[in-house]
Structures are given as C-alpha cells and as structure tokens.
Amino acid sequence: MSVITPTRRSPRTPASRPARSTRRAGTGRLAAALLSPTFLVLGLVIGYPVVAALRLSFQVSSESIDPETGFKVTRTSFGLDNYSTVFTGENFLRPWWNTTSFALASVTLEVLIGVAMALVMHRALRGRALVRAAVLVPWAIPTAISGLLWKWIFNSEGVANDLLNSKILWSTDGFHAWASVVIADTWKTAPFIGLLVLAGLQVIPGELYEAARVDGASSWRTFWRITLPLVRPALVVAVLFRILDVLRMFDLPYLLVGPRKHSVETLSMIAFQEMSNLRFGTAAAYATVLFAYVAVVAFAFVKLFGADLIGRGTRSQR
Amino acid sequence: MSTTARTGHGRSWVRRIGIAAIVAYCLAPFYWMVVSSLRRPADQFSNALVPSPVSFDNYAAAFDERNGFGRALFNSLLVAGTTTVITLVVAISAGYAVARLDFRGKSLVLTLVIACSMFPPITMVVPLLELFTDAGWINTYQAMIVPSMSFALPLAVWNLSAFFRQMPAELESAAQVDGCTPAQAFRKVILPLAAPGVFTTAILVFIMSWNEFLIAVSVVNERQKMTSNVIVALFTGQYKFDQPFGTQMAAGVVVTLPLVIAVLVFQRRIVDGLTAGGLK
Q1: H/E element holding A59?
Q2: Which of residues 107-166 of B touch A (CB under 8 A)?
Q3: Are A100 and A226 contained in the same domain?
Q4: I need a surface site. Which of A181, A247, B199, B242 has the fewest CB within 10 A?
Q5: A155 and A259 share a domain?
Q6: Domain count of the fold of chain A
C-alpha cells in the first residue's frame, strides 16, 4: 500500500498536477509508517497465534521409553489425531450446541429488550442522564464479577429462588444452569444494545414521524415502517458483534456454573480445559475450530444481512 | 428529541414507568451485590432488601492477608494501565492514518482491524501459553499486557479514527498552507484538539483490560501476580467447599466501584465512544 507506481498514478491524476501526485505518494509512505506499529503488534498477538495454533493442532506427541537408556522420550509427529478427538466421542456435538444455543438465545433476548429500552429512552424527556448512567452499569461490571454475582443470586438459598418462591438448584447443571447463563448474559448486554439502537434512533429526522402522523399511520405501523428500517444498519452491526462475542464466551459460564459442566461447556471452555491439562494439541484443535466457526458466522452474517462494517469507517471521506 | 410533540398526561406516566423499569433492571443485581456485601457474615443468607445491621466485616475479610486482594488490585491497575498507555501510543498514529490519509488499501486495513476485533481470545491464548512457557514469561506482567492488546488495539484504532474523522478537514489544510508537513500538522494541530477523543478511548480500553479474565487466568498461576478478577474467584471460605459469597461480593464491589464512578462521571463521553466505535 505504500508504493504507488507511476504507471498506476498517471491515468488517475492529470499530468497537469504533478504536485498533487507526489504528495499522494508521500501520503502513502506516511500511512505505511503510521500503520506499521499497529500491524506489528497485531501480527504478534493475532497473526502468529493463528498460525501457531494451526500448526499445534496437527502436532501429536507420544511418549515412550527408550529401550537403550530407559528414559522417557517424547516424540512429536503430525497427524489428524487432535481433530478426530474434536469431531468424535462424547465431546463432539455438546460444546457446539451449547455455544450456538447461547448465542441464539441470548442475542434474541438482548435485541428484544435492547430495542424496547431504546424506544423508552428515546421518549424520555427528563431523567436521561440518570438512565444513561444506569444503563452503563451492567456494561462496566467485569464479566468475571458478574458471573460470581449471578452465582450468588442463583444460589439455592439465594434471592432468585426467594422471589420465585422455588427451590431450583440453578447453577449445578442441566437446563437451569444453561438458563442462568443466558439470563446473566442478557442482563449485562441488553442495555448495551439499547445504547447502540438509541444512537440510531436519534439520527432519524423527526419530520418522518410527523409525516406519518399526518398520513394517519398508527404508532405500530410507524414503528415497523419507519423506525425499524432506519435503525436496521445500527442494529445489524450490534447483533453481529454480540453473536461473535457470545460464540467465544468463557468467563460467565466458567464462573457462574463452573468448568466441566456438560450443559454450559462452550468451545472456549473445553479448549481451556484441554490446555490446563497440558494437552496443547487438542486445545489448539478446539481453538482453531472455534476460530473457523466464528469466521464463517461473521462472513455469512455480512453476506446475508449486508452488515456494513467498514462503511462506517470510510463514509465521511472527502 | 424528535418526539416532543406528544406530551399528553397519560403518556407521561407510562414513560416514567418505562424509565423506572430500565433503571431497576440495570441496577437491581448491582444493588444486590452491594447489599450482600454489607451484611454480617452470619446474615449472609438473609434476603432482606436492606442490610440490618450494616457491617463491613465482609470488606475486612476480603482484604485479609491470606487472600492477597490488595496486591491483586495493584496488579490489575498495573496491567490495565500499561495496556492502555501502550495501546494508545500505537493506535493514535494508525487511527489518524485511517481517518485522514488518502491511501490505497484503506478498506483492507479497516477490514483487518475489524476482523481482529472478532478474534476469539482462546485461539490466541493456547499457542501463546506454550510460547510464554518456553520464554519463561509465565507469572509475569508482560504475559498479561501483550495479549491484552489483541482486543484493546482494534477497539482503540477504530474509536480514534472515528474521532479524528469528526474533526474538520480544514484544520490540516490550514496548517499545511502555513508550511507544516503532514506529520507536523498532526502533532501540532490535530493531536491537541483530539485530546478528548483520546481520553474517551483511554477510558474504554482501560475498562476492557481491567475486566479481562481469560488471559489473566491462563498465564498466571502464582497468587502474587494474579489480577483482582482472578483472585476474587479463588477466595475460599472457612470451610473448603463453601463459597464465601459475602466476601466475594465485597471484593466485587471494590473491583467494580471505580468503573461505576468512571461511568457516572464520564457517561456522555463513554456513550459517544461506544456508539462511535460501535465495537463493544
């Protein structure tokens, strides 16, 4: 990107403006210089790990006793053993299902609650500052701490059972554990979606609503025909980022329910588990598969819903 | 803003109920954390709405020597603070380049930055843990700071470029007419004016690194170097298997309170940053 060759430049810029074209070449070099530290860091903390994880995931190590010396020797070879662990056995479908169902359930709830919140906040004339501050509180609480908080709320003798007048063992395992994670995640991030949608609502010109009212449109119809189509771009981007966020979820189920619980174990958790047991090959295979899954979902989402991700980044160009 | 037309009395109290519901939704669990932390340990399982009597025993227990919680708070501050500073230094120039310079491959750069922000941290942690083990980086601060930049940097670049873009383009033109090079125009004109945006980005990055858990729990196994999020989860009660919720809630309040205060003070900026970045 730093080099703008003369052959490419000449058809674009008229020959009568050489000063501008040299400045353009200079700008390219400057841009490369300014961007290089960022790409150096990203290459180190993202580029290298992706390649290393891929390599590691094919690496199979076997231990044996050297017959001559009697010492234990570790031999590493390359093969598909780690992936066969990922795609077979009792651990095959469960983490996929947990990861995916968390994403679908939480994000659906979050969108419904978030949009409702945004509509209320948009109408609020007084107390806006109060609401805005309140809405940011769940976002600011560390997920790890909110995991512990919800574990306490969902304790067998905790306030959730007290309010519901029930005796549910929420955070043990099973559907209740799954539901408690969805509730905790929804609580934490629905207000965030609300904020993003509110930002989208605030740029809709008021004349549109007035015109709709003059035309006698009901408020329900106004919502479906004006509000929703116009906040859609903001909403689609928010939903994409939330889905990807839930797909890589780790802290919340790990602390709210715990490791090795079948009903809430996500792909991230199982990779972490393998890593803690020093089975780096299998851990890397899970991590690589999760990476591919996230990439496919992101790509499909952008294609299907036309999420204009970088449009926001280049829009107001001169 | 656009809906001032409807101000009937009937609507007004519906609106107020809606507002009250949102505030209650957002604050009730946090309130419960505060209330639970202020009970006497003996009243831990009381579900009364107000603690009586109010007691700070749980806070004393959280800061008990054997928990190492004070040290963990310092570690969190050090890791999040260093991450924020390094990230900003690296991201300011990239954000400026993306927002202001006209170069080929800009959409590719933006796509890469966005793609990096979607990256699952576990994919990075597994190979890095092996690398850090070989490099002797386990139980070091840099082992937490360097990987944290993987999520902090895309966020910062994206936010800063949004802020730089909001500034009028005439600023640099004027500076360049006055004989500044693009680099000088950036340093002497743009950067001082972008200070609020830089500050907002700093708050966001700090909060995200302060809240980080997966990296910290993976690369550190020594209590001395653990961050507060990790150590609170490891608190043990009087008996081995009973989770000391009261103490954990007290520690949770201590970890969260700085963030809640920051949110109250800087709410407008944070909302601007979040919606401009739209990342997280």
Answers
A1: strand A59-65
A2: 107-131, 146-147, 149-150, 153-154, 157-158, 161-162, 165
A3: yes
A4: B242
A5: yes
A6: 2
Token pair 């604050």: residue:
B27
Which residue type is seen at B156?
Answer: A
Q: Does B22 sit within 8 Å of A191, measured CB to CB?
A: yes
Same domain, A172 and A307: yes
What whole-number distance in Å separates Cα of residue B139 and Cα of residue A80? 32
- In-domain check, residue A129: yes
Q: Does any domain span residue A293? A: yes
| Cβ atoms < 10 Å from Cβ of B92 | 25
Q: Is the Cβ of A300 closer than 8 Å to some Cβ of chain B?
A: no
3-state secondary structure of A78: strand
Tell me the per-residue pLDDT of A83-122, one tens digit each, with 9 for 90 and over: 888 888 776 788 899 999 999 999 999 999 999 999 888 8
Q: Which amino acid is at A194?
A: G
Indicate if the alpha-carbon torsion angle A107, A113, A115, A117 is positive or negative.
negative
Q: Are A130 and A192 in the same domain?
A: yes
* CATH number of the domain enclosing A163: 1.10.3720.10
The predicted model scores a pTM of: 0.87
Is-contact A205 B2, C-beta < 8 A? yes
Tell me the CA distances in angstroms from B134 to A44, A75, B127, B224, one per residue in order.
Answer: 16, 18, 11, 21
pLDDT per residue of chain B (280 residues) written in tens, 0 to 9: 444 444 445 567 888 888 899 999 999 999 999 999 998 888 778 888 888 888 898 898 888 888 889 999 999 999 999 999 999 999 998 998 888 888 888 888 888 888 888 889 999 999 999 899 999 999 999 999 999 999 999 999 988 988 888 888 788 788 878 888 877 877 888 888 888 889 989 999 999 999 999 999 999 999 999 999 999 988 876 555 567 888 999 999 999 998 988 888 888 888 888 876 544 3
Q: How far apart are CA A123 and CA B3, in angstroms?
A: 7
Interface contact B123-A158, CB threshold 8 A: no
Task: Mark yes or no for CB contact A142/B125 under 8 Å.
Answer: no
Determine the Cα–Cα distance for residues A163 and A174; give it in Å rounded to an integer.
21
Please give the pLDDT value at position A9: 41
> In this structure, are residues A173 and A256 in contact, taking their beta carbons and an 8 Å threshold?
no
**Token output for B254:** 């201590």
SS3 A174: coil
φ/ψ region of B278 (left if φ > 0, alpha if ψ in -120 to 50, else beta) reads left
Helix (H, G, I), strand (E, B) or coil at B214: helix
State whether ipTM is beyond 0.95: no
A297 in contact with chain B, both atoms CB, cutoff 8 A: no
Distance CA B185, CA B50 (A): 58
Q: Are A50 and A94 contained in the same domain? A: no
Q: Whole domain around residue A50: which residue ranges?
A: 6-57
- Would A83 be classed as within a structural domain? no
All domains of chain B in start order, with CATH: 9-59 (no CATH), 66-277 (1.10.3720.10)
| Domain presence at residue A70 | no
